[in-house]
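[Discussion] Sanity-checking designs against the backbone

I'm trying to build intuition for which residues belong where. Below is a structure token string of 300 positions. I'd appreciate it if someone posts a full sequence so I can compare it with mine line by line.
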């Protein structure tokens, strides 16, 4: 279901099918469904497996021409659209983070890395077989009405996510190929728990909460401790991450929507458009209007 109050349409899985937190479906053909052909975002995570053919996908500010076989990873709130008129065959799963077992979130050091890469090529027949087996098992279980259906789907999804994590190419120039998999699928869960909570809270509150002290209060830690932890794990200060999220949303609205700078400044809770202009230029080097002009010329 679409949220018509948003500047960019938002599709909510739970609103489409009340009470659900997992969906799997197939699409196939030579044309893209109308709802996928317009810029939109989802409230949930979405992973699509391109089994055959080719599609063109825009995610945030990048254009991807994707050839099968490949996984397309989309995190909540990423703005995207799919175009093209050639044959394709895909399977799609959508789920919220609560449906993913806590243990799996703990062993995937590169959870965010997986979704930030957007496209994960499936490089060989063994990877293709593994991905296909899990998806087919989930598809069949989702269709059937059997006892403990939810539990089985949850465990299959977790196994599938870990399997997909093996495809991730973490951006570590010093890592050897053999070292990549341990990096992706192992982490100190306790060390990273607050970092994940911090980033999740930013996604939910960045419009109205812009100070480190506000997030420290939400997490019941001191601002100094939060900043030290964030700096240790990410290499950035907590304030940098808050500001980056505000800039990202501003860029999305400037690129995808037909909205004035003043309207976007108001939506993002800046005092006025002049302050928004200064903030945006400080962090990007360009004014909002110049960014909008350059990014649209690049892709249109």
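Best answer:
Here's mine. Compare freely.
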């Amino acid at each position: 279901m679409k949220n018509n109050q948003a500047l960019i349409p938002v599709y909510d899985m739970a609103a489409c099918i009340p009470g659900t937190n997992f969906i799997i479906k197939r699409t196939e053909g030579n044309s893209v469904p109308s709802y996928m052909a317009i810029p939109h975002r989802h409230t949930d995570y979405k992973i699509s497996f391109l089994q055959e053919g080719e599609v063109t996908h825009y995610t945030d500010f990048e254009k991807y021409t994707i050839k099968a076989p490949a996984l397309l990873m989309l995190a909540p709130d990423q703005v995207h659209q799919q175009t093209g008129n050639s044959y394709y065959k895909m399977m799609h799963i959508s789920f919220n983070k609560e449906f993913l077992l806590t243990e799996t979130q703990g062993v995937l050091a590169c959870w965010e890395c997986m979704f930030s890469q957007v496209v994960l090529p499936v490089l060989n027949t063994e990877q293709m077989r593994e991905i296909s087996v899990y998806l087919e098992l989930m598809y069949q279980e989702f269709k059937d009405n059997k006892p403990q259906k939810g539990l089985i789907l949850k465990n299959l999804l977790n196994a599938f996510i870990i399997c997909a994590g093996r495809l991730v190419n973490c951006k570590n120039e010093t890592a050897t190929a053999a070292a990549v998999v341990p990096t992706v699928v192992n982490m100190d869960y306790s060390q990273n728990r607050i970092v994940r909570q911090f980033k999740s809270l930013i996604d939910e509150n960045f419009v109205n909460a812009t100070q480190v002290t506000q997030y420290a209060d939400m997490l019941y830690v001191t601002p100094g401790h939060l900043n030290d932890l964030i700096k240790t794990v990410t290499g950035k200060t907590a304030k940098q991450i808050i500001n980056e999220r505000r800039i990202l949303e501003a860029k999305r609205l400037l690129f995808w929507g037909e909205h004035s700078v003043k309207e976007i400044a108001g939506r993002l809770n800046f005092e006025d458009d002049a302050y928004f202009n200064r903030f945006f230029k400080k962090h990007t080097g360009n004014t909002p209007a110049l960014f909008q002009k350059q990014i649209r010329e690049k892709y249109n």
